[in-house]
Design brief:
Layout lengths: L21 H5 L13 E11 L38 H13 L3 E2 L2 E2 L2 E4 L9 E4 L6 E2 L2 E8 L5 E16 L3 E5 L4 E5 L6 E7 L6 H18 L11 E10 L9 E6 L2 H20 L8 E5 L4 E4 L12 E2 L6 E2 L18 H6 L5 H12 L3 H9 L3 H12 L3 H18 L11 H14 L4 H11 L6 H7 L8 H14 L1 H8 L5 H12 L6 H13 L9
Parallel strand pairs: 13-14
Antiparallel strand pairs: 1-11, 1-12, 2-6, 3-17, 4-5, 4-16, 6-8, 7-8, 8-11, 9-10, 12-13, 14-15
This protein binds adenosine-5'-triphosphate and magnesium ion (MG) (2 copies).
The site of adenosine-5'-triphosphate has 17 residues, from strand 1, strand 11 and strand 12.
Keywords: ATP-binding, Ligase, Mitochondrion, Nucleotide-binding, Protein biosynthesis
EC number: 6.3.5.-
Pfam family, one: GatB_Yqey
Length: about 550
């Protein structure tokens, strides 16, 4: 196979080129030795985001992930004859907010349609969706991914959004292999979904995973979807094809219902490899629906979706067109409860993750890659900002402490910052104490570990009890500095020869020998002072 998928950066559309334009795709990828260009991957996603609402899209049944099977099913959800849909205002607002945040045009008039298919967990035999005229069109999802050996170079990319449509979720089929039965749970039937259809602007699994992670953050910031992929709140269908740049797009396969960003990347890259092998072997790719088997890491054809689907779309006769307004266009005497105002929702949009990251970098001078980690972890931005404000410690020190020590502990316990409440409050105070007393490093880690055990002792108490406070005694530190200088002759000569970077190594040694307690600023000052003196006779020059 002539194309490697180890990295998509060489084959992906770069930040400076308008995504999706044929010229962008044909501008590179030519194999200098070959007469025809190499095959490249094309990826387009359909993302189903479950709307964060207390009730379903067209009924008043509760939405609850963990309720007992079939305990939240209204007559309408079960498709009993004579029942009618009543549109949930909250779902409409969520779709409008999502569209606005992604720069879409909001259609002031949109329509509902029936999409028919036969499946046991779809009792009506059709799903209500928005095929002809969806609520939002156009728009763009900007995302970044970190590349480079240390993953510290930020590459910005864009993917165009074709449309966002409101639709119903289906029920769930639960397969009981022991009894050879399939059981149906209709709790999910009729839950509000936003289907976001993305244009085929991506070229590999890594890009698709980064785009989905960014969308997840945006939806969470908006509060329109909780975005928990493992609970199925965000499910992705990956459309994948290969072609030679300059030629029409290849036949796509659709890998259905992927519920983790990591699996999404793996499924797409596997599927690209598979299709490239087919095309290079002279075969043709079939337009089929496939599933990802995470155990084998392979995609396999789905038996139930063989052949071309005819959904027999028709207008939904029980729902009038959905009309949205701006404040100025609301007709007189309209019931305000029946009105969704687009301009009002626009004003209510919160700060989006991209803006938060930029703000963290400019306000606190932290590295861009650190701003990504802060924003990616639920509750960590507020935590970081709170600690900086309360301690007035240098943000660069706080970020080191938060990312290295706090996150390490949280990961061990499989917790997020928000979940660590009620520990959150004492933790914040412990950070304050640590920032004042011992700045960062090993002593802070010890304090945190003690607090985590829940002994009830305060951070200050632990610092005093274990003698973890910052060491500020000049003569004590000077002695350690001298010992370190004497035992590192090569480093000292390198420093004296002008290699200033070596100083950090010596500072590190002093901190190590004092178990991280020596005040780093004092250590630096003493080392510089000691090393500025002319060497004694016999000492390395
Ligand atoms: N050649 C291609 N290669 C990869 N992706 C493609 C290609 N052509 C279209 N796509 C992607 O396929 C998706 C099509 O989604 P859309 O909802 O319009 O139709 P569908 O998949 O036929 O319908 P359904 O909603 O029933 O799955 C889009 O995300 C689009 O970007
Ligand atoms: Mg679709
Ligand atoms: Mg599809």
């Amino acid at each position: 196979m002539s194309t490697s998928l180890s990295s998509c950066s060489s084959r992906s559309r770069s930040a400076s080129v308008q995504p999706g334009s044929p010229s962008a795709a044909s501008a590179r990828h030519w194999n200098s030795s070959a007469t025809s260009p190499q095959l490249v991957g094309v990826v387009g996603l359909e993302i189903h985001a479950q709307i964060y609402a207390s009730t379903k899209l067209f009924s008043s049944s509760q939405v609850c992930f963990s309720s007992p099977p079939n305990s939240s099913v209204s007559f309408f959800d079960a498709a009993l004859p004579g029942t009618l849909p009543v549109l949930n205002r909250r779902c409409v607002e969520a779709a409008v907010m999502t569209g606005l945040a992604l720069g879409c045009t909001i259609n002031k008039r949109s329509l509902f349609d029936r999409k028919h298919y036969f499946y046991a967990d779809l009792p009506a035999g059709y799903q209500i969706t928005q095929q002809r005229l969806p609520i939002a069109v156009g728009g763009r999802l900007s995302y970044s991914h970190l590349v480079g050996r240390k993953r510290n170079q930020v590459v910005d990319k864009n993917v165009r959004i074709k449309q966002i449509q409101l639709e119903q979720d289906s029920g769930k089929s639960l397969h009981d292999s022991y009894r050879s039965q399939t059981l149906i749970d209709l709790n999910r039937a009729g839950v509000g979904l936003m289907e976001l259809v993305l244009e085929p602007d991506m070229s590999c699994g890594e890009e698709a995973a980064a785009a989905v992670r960014e969308l997840q953050l945006i939806l969470q910031a908006l509060g329109t979807c909780q975005g928990n992929m493992s609970e199925g709140q965000l499910r992705v269908d990956a459309n994948v094809s290969v072609h030679r740049p300059g030629e029409p797009l290849g036949v796509r396969t659709e890998v259905k219902n992927i519920n983790s960003a990591r699996f999404l990347a793996r499924a797409i890259d596997y599927e690209l490899q598979r299709q490239m092998a087919v095309v290079e072997g002279g075969g043709t790719v079939l337009n089929e629906t496939r599933a990802f088997d995470f155990k084998s890491g392979q995609t396999v054809p789905m038996r139930d979706k063989e052949g071309l689907q005819d959904y027999r779309f028709m207008p939904e006769p029980n729902l009038p067109p959905l009309i949205l307004y701006e404040r100025e266009t609301v007709p007189a005497h309209t019931d305000p409860r029946q009105v969704v105002l687009v301009d009002q929702l626009q004003e209510q949009l919160p700060e989006l993750p991209r803006v938060t990251r930029d703000r963290l970098v400019t306000t606190y001078g932290i590295l861009p890659e650190h701003s990504f980690t802060l924003v990616n972890e639920d509750g960590l931005v507020d935590y970081f900002v709170g600690v900086v404000q309360q301690t007035r410690a240098e943000p660069k020190k706080v970020i080191g402490w938060v990312l290295n020590d706090l996150l390490g502990l949280l990961k061990q316990q499989c917790l997020t910052v928000s979940q660590s409440c009620p520990l959150g409050v004492p933790l914040k105070w412990s950070l304050c104490v640590c920032a004042r007393v011992c700045v960062c490093g090993e002593p802070c880690r010890q304090v945190l570990q003690e607090l985590w055990k829940g002994s009830g002792k305060s951070a200050k108490h632990i610092v005093e009890e274990q003698g973890l406070g910052l060491m500020r005694d000049r003569s004590e530190i000077q002695q350690v500095c001298r010992r370190v200088i004497d035992s590192h002759p090569d480093e000292v000569s390198a420093l004296r020869a002008g290699n200033k970077n070596v100083l950090n190594k010596l500072i590190g040694q002093v901190r190590k020998q004092t178990k991280g307690r020596a005040d780093p600023q004092l250590v630096r000052a003493i080392l510089e002072e000691e090393l500025s003196r002319p060497p004694f006779h016999g000492e390395t020059t």
